[in-house]
Amino acid sequence: MTMLFLDRLRRHSLSQPDKVAIELLTPAGPQSLRYGELERQVGRCMAWLLALGLRPGACVATQLPRGLAFVQLHLAICRLGAVHLPLNPAFPAAELRYFLADSGATLFFHAADHPGAASIAEATPDLTCIALRDDDSYTRQIDRFEPVAPPPPRDPQQLAMMLYTSGTTSRPKGARITHGNLTANIEALHEAWGWRQDDVLLHVLPLFHVHGLTVALHGALRAGATAVLTPRFDAVSVLDLLESRRFSVFMGVPTLYRRLYRAAAGRSHDLRHLRLMTSGSDRLPDDLFEGMRQRFGVTLLERYGMTETGMNLSNPLRGERRRGSVGLPLPGVEARVLDRRTGTPLPDGAVGELQIRGPHVCAGYHNQPGQTAAAFTADGWLRTGDLAERAPDGYFTLQGRAKDLIISGGMNVYPPEVERALLEHPDVRAVAVIGCADEEWGERVVALVVPEAGSAPGQADLEAWCRARLAPYKVPRVWRRVGSLPQNALGKVRKAVLREAFCG
Ligand code: MCA
Hints:
The chain is an alpha/beta fold. It has helices at 5-15, 35-51, 68-79, 93-103, 117-123, 135-142, 179-192, 210-223, 235-244, 254-263, 286-296, 369-375, 415-423, 459-469, 495-502, and strands at 20-26, 29-34, 59-63, 83-86, 107-111, 128-132, 159-165, 173-178, 200-203, 226-229, 249-252, 276-279, 301-306, 310-314, 328-329, 334-338, 352-357, 382-390, 396-401, 406-408, 411-413, 428-438, 442-451, 478-481. The protein has a nine-stranded mixed beta sheet, sandwiched between helices. A four-stranded parallel beta sheet has the order 4-3-5-6. The radius of gyration is 23 Å and the shape is globular. The N and C termini lie far apart (54 Å). Bound molecules: methylmalonyl-coenzyme A (MCA).
């Protein structure tokens, strides 16, 4: 059996205790944690969690900014055999309440200035809520404890994380991610992307998604490499850092690359010392792929993943990084393209639904047997809802989505979720939410609102309504009032017609 991810990390703490594992850049200067210190701090954190009554299998939610406390809590929760649910700090209380209730979390770590925390603590007396002011206050908490060092879970079926993904028909569902899933994915990436112990990753991505957490951070820790975390993404300072320090790896979404590209206008930059710059979470536009090559001398490596699976397909590290393609199946991953009507496999060059199978695919959705059954075939293939075609030489190209989904700045926005929120507004009779192409964000969220007779809800009012219920990136940026919405014979809104009419 392959050594599980956390075991591998523990080995690094013994073999290279003085090597920097994580460096956090802060306005007050860098803070670093060496592999040996990381193991000790995680040991103290585990002692604290045990003192708080945490048991294996229990779910711990965190809604924390990127920082050393987040990383240590993540590793400690997983190491104790509990389940980590990392949440976006931008979720308002309304969304947060749903995630906490649905996951059955027993412990919740949140930022001390969280506006909704008091009401949540009051409404859910069984939930232990712990406020952390910053990394320093976290360190003071755990410093009261001697480190413990229980062996990491050895059962690959043991749950490690729960990550929520929205749906077109349902409320968000928690993908159940096991230690075996995490290990399978990180081993596949280690091999395919040639992770090295002397790699230095510049990490700018959110830590509460697969991309930033289980691909970027775990990738660096699995390799025994160094991850340097910026407090937030700022194109000019990231560009300066990439040039001035010897980073070898960077991971981003197309919106980030667009900003880097623009920030470099009029200046010459050479980023050829980076051996790997990957792009994912959304389709990389052709002009950006070419622009990054011309302006920085870098050929971006595009890959394809999902919350339910981690990474599935990737262009090769060596060999052709094909423009517009998401590459080939990673080691251990099976991928196929099926006819959506008949369910039969399609020949190369034909567009159908992409399905994925392998040891990295999650163990279904938490408490949602119906959704799990709908998402998987009887023989274990995950229906991705993405359309793709396979070229005769094995490269896959995404060709759109069968699901109603908008991707804005690499974040998934499910129109039905936004529509449901707006339909609760007393002045809204009907609404359709669509994505319109946008150079910076990939797509931008547009709402077409049919008001109730005699009412005329204002944009500011509708926006405030959404902001109280949804994370800011889901809130429509463009609003249009319409008299009616075009429907098909089954009464379903014809979004293609709306996109044609309103995405000018
Ligand atoms: C921020 N804003 C956004 C988005 N992000 N609006 C639409 N879409 C977004 N993605 C809005 C904020 O609400 C705010 O508006 C304004 O932009 C500025 O906010 P700020 O936080 O300063 O934004 P930013 O720092 O400029 O963030 C943009 C970003 C960020 C850096 C592109 O969105 C980002 O890090 N995206 C990467 C997401 C990612 O890692 N995705 C992976 C998940 P206002 O003030 O009006 O509220 S997908 C995944 O994991 C799969 C498996 C995969 O394959 O990778």
